[in-house]
Design brief:
The complex is a heterodimer of chains A (324) and B (319). Chain A is built from 13 helices and twelve strands. By secondary structure, chain A is of the alpha/beta class. Chain A has a domain of 79 residues. In chain A, the strands form two sheets. In chain A, strands 6-7-8-3-9-10-12-11 form an eight-stranded mixed β-sheet, with helices on both faces. The two termini of chain A are 35 Å apart. The model of chain A has no long low-confidence stretch (mean pLDDT 90). The mean pLDDT of chain B is 90. Chain B is of the alpha/beta class. Chain B has two domains: 229 residues, Rossmann fold (3-Layer(aba) Sandwich); 69 residues, no CATH class. The chains are: A alpha/beta (324), B alpha/beta (319). At the A-B interface, helix 7, helix 8, helix 9 and helix 10 of A face helix 6, helix 7, helix 9 and helix 10 of B.
Chain lengths: 324, 319
Amino acid sequence: MPLLDVTDLRVHFHTRSGVFRAVDGVSFSLERGETLGLVGESGSGKSVSCYALMGLLPTPPARIESGTAVFDGTDLLRAPASAVRALRGKRIAMIFQDPMTSLNPYLRIGEQIVEPLLIHESLPRRAALQRAESMLAAVGIPDPARRLRQYPHEFSGGMRQRVMIAMALITKPELLIADEPTTALDVTVQAQILDLIKSMQRELGMAVIFVTHDLAVVSGLCDRVQVMYAGRIVETAGTRTLFGAARHPYTRELQRSIPALQSKGAALYTIPGLPPDLSKPLPGCAFAPRCEFATGACTATAAELRPVAAHHAHACTRAQRGEI
Amino acid sequence: MSDPILELRQVQTHFATPAGLVRAVDGVSLTLARGEVLGLVGESGCGKSTLARTILQLVPTTGGSVVLAGRTLTGAPAGEIRAARRDLQMVFQDPYASLNPRMTVFDTLAEPLLVHAVCPRAEVPVRVAELMQLVGLAPRFARKYPHEFSGGQRQRIAIARALALQPKLIVADEPVSALDVSIQAQILNLLSDLVRRMDLSLIFIAHDLSVVKHISDRIAVMYLGKIVELGPAADVIERPAHPYTRALISAIPTPDPARERSRPRVILAGDPPSPLDPPAGCPFHPRCAYVQERCRAAVPALAPAGPRRTAACVRLGEI
């Protein structure tokens, strides 16, 4: 049985300018200890999916229209608040893009790191602070005893992200959701944080959902990668397959447009057109208007995610039929 | 180099803070040719943004001189600096913060035209429409506000504003860092294209070498207020001379799972040292894999490291 099983998740935002289908029928599952990359551009629904799992979406305007997200027998979307609270911050933890806005500037780091232990494990403060100190050391923060008494502004960006990771992992969660944790960091610090997540994952055996807009970041970290576009999953495959033998035209275009992969001199490749307006109905494939292979049928009939090989599925009807 | 657009001679920008003197820019010398694109890279806190602000004279310079097209800006009266800004424009990292949310695209682009009296008032709408077309925005969006645009489109508006006065030099401070990877290429293409078409010079600042390699003729690598390596872009990326440049290149993740899992990587430990208390000798020595006793003795000067290349490392020939 998978650790997490998401089925037909739909999250819509009800605003004055219309209903935006931010997540539009997303299904996936995650095994224990597995690392899943969730990749897509701004507005593809990757973060909203994660926020929905954690119950962190503001409702209204957001509304979960359908779906289940079963974590070890509990449906996170329907279970009573108390049952979800018992899981969140204990067995499921999350880290965010901006460690400055997700730490409380008025509280010492130590107070913030021990909070999950006081709440979930009812540990005495002294014991909790000791755990916090060894956790700070484990995430590579020198002089942890002194650092526990400092405030967030006394830490650099990379060090703050380490604090966030320490706080998330102190209860030894089974699932870590990481929402663009390195996007705001220098490349050198990004490399340190990616290594840290990798080694902590090995040590604790936890599953990780790693959300990013940068395909290059997931290549060294993830077992499996799932590409999202306009609120839907368009392709999912093992990391090597996704980078070596992607079938969906959007995945291929996304790879072509990475500046690092392109040689100097010529103009950089960019995907023509813009992502669709999610408040308008999209009966067919959402990528069809930008796709060089699209036919009339692509915009008219629904594109469904179908398995094409073991652990490889995509939602391009033409590739499924073997036409491209 | 004859008739350069920009010359920096031993530029210093130091800030006196309650905690001590911060040497944010500490003796930078550079010459930028007309039409040249210089990539300026380094980690947060290395002084690259302060150097950009120093070039524009947005912060007081504490030493050295900044010469734009033959005019010395350092120490010049405020009126002269304001006049020089027609030739010298900046594009900032965050297009959400650098555009006034209460001004339409039209107002944003018309403002510099009116302030500097570039054209008669009646011609302003035509010029604004031209500017929008130049950066790939449809002029029919002129009455919209910044929040109605995506991040990439907002950066286009910021670029159009910088172009309004037909400057000779643009300093772009991390213009694509806040954008999705797929949008970065669009903005990079736009900037390269504008440099060619408008005979511009460009200083392009980034923390990621893979982003600057496409657009730059030369690359300068900064560390703790100093340039540690300078050379033609392809040479610096393919055969980095300074150990710090090597570490920066090694940190870039590659979209190739097999290579990513097997390649040897230099992961720099910790953060750059505090500019309040720089280490003695080479500023990079506490994090350097090739450190020797003599690295702690004196600050290495920039020395020739190949054709048109310089680097500040005492072990250049050995590593």
